[in-house]
């Protein structure tokens, strides 16, 4: 298969009659590319496609077979895509076009300023439709991902929210008194301890039992609460 060099295809002196009979229809190629791109995208999504970019001066031998359309990268995605158009017939030519795909999604956008370590609530964000092809990976679409989490840094109003903007909240702080639950489910004993380090939900931290002065490993369960389950 040969790839057509566009500079050799610009036959500037061809007559309209000859062009109509002998050369591939550019609108037909554009339609084929548009149909290919649309069929390659998630039908549940919201998209805006640019017209396939094909030099209007281009004159290719008329293809007697069905055109073969393909993505150079292997798949169509939001952003700029290079799309191949190939004639598998006797003329056997291939050219490339570009199509820009805008993908619109409902994303979380900050409505109220956040400072480092602030607890995030529903009042901090709103939902807006944005062109996802212009966003970095990791943007948030589900409010449940961020509610009751802790901001990792200062975030100004109007920012699209990303996974890097939050972490699990610190439920236990170093030096604070905590309740230690120990035993088995249904038979728990509660004692008082002092956290030796900060801890988030599910994290194992060192805790000193106030009564015995022993340092034990316990799992953070909730605000000021850790447990030690016995086997």
Main attributes of the structure:
mainly beta; Type Iii Antifreeze Protein Isoform Hplc 12; cilium; Flagellar_FlgA; periplasm; SH3 type barrels; signal; 2 helices; 15 strands; 3 domains
Helices and strands, with pairings:
Blueprint: E1 2-3, H1 16-22, H2 26-40, E2 46-49, E3 68-71, E4 79-86, E5 93-110, E6 125-131, E7 150-151, E8 166-167, E9 170-172, E10 177-184, E11 187-195, E12 199-200, E13 204-209, E14 215-222, E15 225-229
Parallel strand pairs: 1-5, 10-15
Antiparallel strand pairs: 2-5, 3-4, 4-5, 5-6, 7-8, 9-12, 10-11, 11-13, 13-14, 14-15
Quick overview:
The chain is mainly beta and 231 residues long. 10% of the residues lie in helices and 38% in strands. A hairpin with a 2-residue loop joins strand 14 (215-222) and strand 15 (225-229).
What does this entry look like structurally?
The chain is mainly beta and 231 residues long. The chain folds into three domains: 2-102; 104-167, Antifreeze-like/N-acetylneuraminic acid synthase C-terminal domain (Type Iii Antifreeze Protein Isoform Hplc 12, Alpha-Beta Complex); 170-229, Roll (SH3 type barrels), CATH 2.30.30. 10% of the residues lie in helices and 38% in strands. The protein is built from two helices and 15 strands. Strands 1, 2, 3, 4, 5 and 6 form a six-stranded mixed beta sheet that branches. The longest helix has 15 residues, at 26-40. The N and C termini lie far apart (69 Å). Residues 1-20 have low confidence and may be disordered.
